Amino acid sequence: MVTIGWRLRRLAQALFTVWAVITLSFAMIRLMPGNAMGAMMVRFEQQGMSPARARELVELRLSLDPDKPIHTAYVEYVLNTLQGDLGTSVFHNEPVVDLLAAALPWTLFVLSWSIFISFFIGIAAGALMAYWEGGKLDVGLTSWAVLMGSIPFYVLAILLLIFASYRWGIFPSGGRQPTGVEAGFNITYIRGILYHATLPVLSMLVASGVASLGMRGNSIRVLGSDYLRVARLRGLSDYTISTQYVARNAVLPMYTTLLISIGEMFGGSIVLEYVFNYRGLGLLLYEAFNQRDYPLMMGGFVLITIAVVIALLIADMTYSWVDPRAGGQNSDSY
Amino acid sequence: MTASDRDRTDPGRAEKSHESAVSAIPDGGTVNSPFEVVSEYEETRRDRLRKLYDTYVYAPISIIKRDWRAQIGFTIVLFYVFMGTIGVYLIEPTYVTEGPALAQPFETWEYPLGTDDMGRDLFASVVHSTSEMLKMILAGGLFTVTLGTVVGGIAGYKGGVVDTVLSSITDVFINLPGLPTVMVLALMLPIHGNPYLIGVLLTIASWGGLARAIRSQVLTLRQEPFTEAARSMGVPSHQIVFRDIVPHLMPFVIINLTNAARRVIFSAAGLYFLGVLPFSNHNWGVTLDLAYSGGAHYRTGALHWFLVPMVAIVGISIGLILLGQSLDRVFNPRVRARHEKKFAESQLEEVDPDSDDDSEPMIGAA
Amino acid sequence: MTTSQSTSLDDPTAADPVVEIRNATVRFGMERGESRVLDDVSLDLERNEIFGVVGESGSGKSMLASAMLDAVVEPGILDGSITYRPEAGDPIDVLGLTTNELRTFRWEEIAMVFQGAMSSFNPVRKIDTHFVETLSAHDYDVDEGMERARGLISDLYMDPERVLDSYPHELSGGMKQRTLIALSLILEPDVLVMDEPTAALDLLMQRSIVSLIEEIKEEYDLTILFITHDLPLVADLADRIAVMYAFEFVELGPTEEILQHASHPYTRLLLKSTPNLASPIEAMRPIEGSAPDPVNVPSGCSFHLRCPLADEQCVEVDPEAYSVSDSSVSVTGSDSDSDLSPDSDATSIPNSDAGDHVANCHYWEDAPETIPMTEEWDVEGIDAIDSAPGPSRTADPLVSMEDVEVHFETEGSFLDFFSEPDTVQAVDGISLDIYENDVVVLVGESGCGKTTFGKTAVGLQEPTDGAVKYRGQDIWDLKRSGGDGTMSFDTVRRALQIVHQDPGSALNAHRRVGTSLEVPLKRWNPELDGNDRKSRIVSLLEHVGMSPAEDYIDRYPHQLSGGEQQRVALIRAMLMNPDLILADEPVSALDVSLRVEMMDLMIELQEQFDTSYLFVSHDLSNARYIAEKTGGRIGVVYLGELVEIGRPEEIIHDPQHPYTQALRWATPEPDFEGGGMGGESPIREIDVPDPTDPPSGCRYHTRCPEAREVCTREHPEPNEASAAAYHEAACFRTDDHHEYWNSPSITDGGD
Ligand code: SF4
Ligand code: SF4
């Protein structure tokens, strides 16, 4: 169904996007008014360095040579970035890549749980609403879903922090791992990690509201379809009908929604990790912003973008595998 | 009962059809060329105004009147608009040490929602934040919808190289992660707390999704027989796009408008809460930030400091969701026709049991 | 329920009903009151018969199908009784079954083929899963069952392995439909209910499926209830026919009886309104009025508003089923009025004796006289048509197409390094001249490129090769150069118009009728003011019978019926004052009884507006009606090529190309003379070859019964096909000296 040509085109599109983002970040660092380079120079000079020394440092940190003509500098920057050299953090004085690599798993851990659980809840709730469409449960769950859709995750995060942590003391108020336990593959440590991740994950569950409304609409459509009617007449069991017919067809369109929300959640992790003081990618980026640590900031930005690009690429590439009808064109569905 | 049967029961209408029958008689003689007929029938300006009123005022209001979601949504949104426009003149802006620190809500008329730890009146700060927020919503919402519709529409209708170029650009923006992009740009660009600029900035990464969806819908719509018919009549492209295609996209655009508005609210408050946007004024997010850094989450008696801005944020987004869901019906000709005075019910619709409104809640549509 | 028992004693040969339906009624509660969508229908379905139910859309015929399986969708309520009598064992009261029993009963005893075959399969699962899950849900042996499935699929002329391994969307419509039939027979039911099983298919495919149904019925010992809107189609197949109007049976009897001695006025009018190939076109008449709304069925006889024979009795008394006893309709003074006993209505059921013919009409005896249809049923009538005013085809053509080619690339972009893009050769080298006041009807199967060719002719599709000329000017050159002084592209644009197949989507759903109709006037008659425009629109609407026009102007398209929508679309095209209108299947979306009326209207407007038509149709009888009435030509298109063209007399009565002969065979005809028509299928393959890879040589050679070896190599060019004027065909058989005649046959049976 899906031609090689289409897959190639999609891949080219993804590469184009990565290139565009890298170029954008180069432009931001270099060309914009109040650009990063200028700002860094000023800062170093304020710290009492000689302009020459400052320039040298900036060059080192940004992996950019300010004196080179702009096109050479640009080519170098792109090549460096593609090779994983994102410069050195001003504040931490460590390679940006190492810092990001250390923080990324924690964020991925929280995000994957959040996405998994909220879509699970969303799909289940949506199916229930559709099955009892118009009933009390439907009205109740729809109201719940609208409410969930209206609450920003950080609002829920703060509320959880106030109650579950400070008032009732059930969960820790911050951090990502238990103190005083040796990091490693032991039960106490893993339990500690889960314990610390619970509140961040719970806060992200507001996403289930929107998901459940989507699922509700899809299921209602499937329930009214001809093939469902034929399946009933053929005497298929309720189990087969609900899993192989309703669920499969209704969940399919959610697939792209799901992968799209990864991008949004990555962005959201900045606020989330700030609230819970959870040391992941988001908090790292937040600090980089506050300290005007440009190399780290732009490195994080490029990394997150690439992560989103890859997620969407996977979404498009695998969609035809999930849905036999998709000939590649269905990637337009979002 | 057919429409013509109903005529007879409505004296006003019977008269009208009589009038037209009279006008048709002169042609009756020259039936061979109905094409050559010139004006016999005079439509008065009042008739025309009445029709316009019926279509654009009466029907939408009547749709909204019958839908509880729309009523609640409208009331909430109007309330916020009232706060943000007239409210600012009624309520004095607050200042530090205006009242006692951390006064509890609902205790005095002076500080109905309590005060923060510096004695600022939370009610006043909510009201004054609203106008700022509304400006951002307006700018961000319009920006998303305009750019998304125009780019998506052109890409879809023109096709070819134009489509390839626009789609590639769209794709880049779709892939930009929202909050980090805004933070980076806010740092680089001289926005100085201008609410309109902030609104636009906040949606810089979100118009892409709409553009892409609009593009694929336009691709379908331009194949539809009615657009083909318009093309064959020599109607210019821009008219086809605006008169034939855009109306079909309206429900979709409206849903996206309210989604964009919610996104603006969430991101603005979120970024102000982080303290990464430059601010000069009140904002719900700023209040959250102050409360957080003021330790309101562990101090006793400070809970309302958080709750007041939170309720403000959640309230307006509930209003927007409900409004979006119901406005979508206003653009549906089936629903609209049913609510116009002329055809209270149409025989054709009722035979088809599912022709009743099929609008699903679709806040997740984009 | 005892009635049928007693009849079976009387006549042991006939009465062995498999299913007895008594007083089946389906009701829906609606805002405006209760609606009955099936009204007190009783029927005995005899074992091993094919029973046809004919009705227009909204006559309740699909409800009858659902009722047979107790599968009426909520919130409908089904009353009455339905008894199923298996060959061995006790009768089953279908409506009394529990949910679980019903689950077993359906598909094992009575199976159903739905109208929507296109959407009857789960889109994300392969075809074989559908078979397997059905077998296991009913605890059948899966291996054995799948063996049977393969047998069924190959009986339906498909490759079992390929079909079973496909996803639903990978099969063509005709294949899906046949697969659905196989799926319905997988549990070896006794009764098969088919609800419009061929409605969405081409004639050739329809006809092929109908022959397959006959074969399958014999082989699998089935009783079939065949529901359709197409009387001629079912007439070929069914042993008995019931005609439905307004949610009840109005006439029921053996097929021959119904065709030759139709006694209910509706049946007679329906027969007359159905275009066909044999009867003279003058005899075809539309039925006035429209079918009733289920909430508001007229009192007494539900047909009285449209019936030419109606009187007070019809308004007051609901006619019972009168027995049209002797087939040689004896028009004697009848005492049927005195038979009227009010209680006889409830119990009078169509007699299960298969020989019986009943009609629910008080005046059934008078119907044949008032609504005659027989006098000119002889072939001579057709020659008279020769006098039809044909356009003069000597003058310069209005639109001429020279070797037009339209190739679509299915997949193509600058990044496709590896795969050669597939090209669909939608139109491949067609030349055709259309003159002033000319009518050309293109017929062919769907996907053969006739619509694409039509759109090319009116300048809506740019040809990839060849030229389209309007009054001698190449229109695409004109468009690119922006006009040369004598003519501008605007002139062309205005002269060539289109009327689409689906009137619902041809009008912008967001615009009122008046606004839609204003568009051409605003664009081309800027001198008119609002009131002038309005009067023109009003007078045209009145002219096509949409009055009060004032009322229609303010309606949205969804507030019009299909026929009214099509009229608006037609007027809109006419307001441009065009020279040529492409009418793309303009009547196929309408009910049978409305088609003749719409075609008449189009022909009338043609005369008034002096236009030419290019019709596109998949239905040979509609094509004949139009071409014969206007003195036009019929062109037969196959896989992007024009294989035969000529006047209807030749195309219908003297087709030269084997494909035209196949279309001719596929067109069902009500056989008023008695005796079957049918005959062997003249095609070797049911399915059309893949248009991305058309056969070499003559494109028809894969299906042609006359194909010889040379046909696989050489491509036949259009050739004089007979002595008649304008008759050409692209087949070697038209050339008496071609090497074809010495070439060996490639068909299995030999020649
Ligand atoms: S009963 Fe009367 S109205 Fe009905 S079909 Fe017969 S003659 Fe016509
Ligand atoms: S040329 Fe040969 S294959 Fe083609 S239609 Fe004629 S006989 Fe058949």
UniProtKB/TrEMBL annotation, chain A:
An example of a Gene Ontology cellular component annotation for this protein is: plasma membrane
Q: Which domain of life is it from?
A: Archaea
Bilayer topology:
Multi-pass membrane protein
Give the record's keywords alphabetically.
Answer: Membrane, Transmembrane, Transmembrane helix, Transport
Task: Report the subcellular localization.
Answer: Cell membrane; Membrane
- Which SUPFAM superfamilies does the record match to this protein? MetI-like (SSF161098)
- One biological process GO term for this chain? transmembrane transport
Q: Please state which protein family the record places this protein in.
A: Belongs to the binding-protein-dependent transport system permease family.
Protein's name in the database: ABC transporter permease
This protein's species is Natronoglomus mannanivorans
TrEMBL record, chain B:
Mark out the compositionally biased spans (Basic and acidic residues): 1-19
PROSITE patterns according to UniProt = ABC_TM1 (PS50928)
**Superkingdom to which the source organism belongs:** Archaea
Query: What organism is recorded for this protein?
Result: Natronoglomus mannanivorans
Annotated membrane topology: Multi-pass membrane protein
Occurrences of domain ABC transmembrane type-1 (ranges): 130-324
* InterPro entries with a match to the protein in the record: MetI-like, MetI-like_sf
Extent of Acidic residues compositional bias: 347-360
Tell me which family the UniProt entry assigns to this protein: Belongs to the binding-protein-dependent transport system permease family.
Query: What keywords are annotated for this sequence in UniProt?
Result: Membrane, Transmembrane, Transmembrane helix, Transport
- Name the SUPFAM superfamilies on file: MetI-like
Q: Which residue spans traverse the membrane? A: 72-91, 136-157, 169-189, 195-214, 264-282, 302-324
Places the protein is found: Cell membrane; Membrane
Protein name per Swiss-Prot or TrEMBL: ABC transporter permease
Region of interest (Disordered), residue spans: 1-28, 343-366
Has UniProt tagged this entry with the keyword Glycoprotein?
no
Q: Any keyword tRNA processing?
A: no
Automatic annotation (TrEMBL), chain C:
What are the UniProt keywords, alphabetically? ATP-binding, Cell inner membrane, Cell membrane, Membrane, Nucleotide-binding, Translocase, Transport
Where is the protein found, in the record's own terms? Answer: Cell membrane
Q: Which SMART domains match?
A: AAA
Domain called ABC transporter: residue spans: 21-271, 399-664
GO: which molecular function terms? ATP binding
Topologically, how does it sit relative to the membrane? Peripheral membrane protein
Among PROSITE patterns, the record links this protein to: ABC_TRANSPORTER_1, ABC_TRANSPORTER_2
UniProt-annotated stretches for the region Disordered: 321-355, 679-699
Does the UniProt entry include the keyword Chaperone?
no
Q: Where does the source fall among the domains of life?
A: Archaea
Instruction: Give the compositionally biased regions (Low complexity).
Output: 323-335
Instruction: Show the PANTHER family listed in the entry.
Output: ATPASE AAA-TYPE CORE DOMAIN-CONTAINING PROTEIN, OLIGOPEPTIDE TRANSPORT ATP-BINDING PROTEIN APPD
What is the recorded name of this protein?
ABC transporter ATP-binding protein
Q: Which organism is it from?
A: Natronoglomus mannanivorans
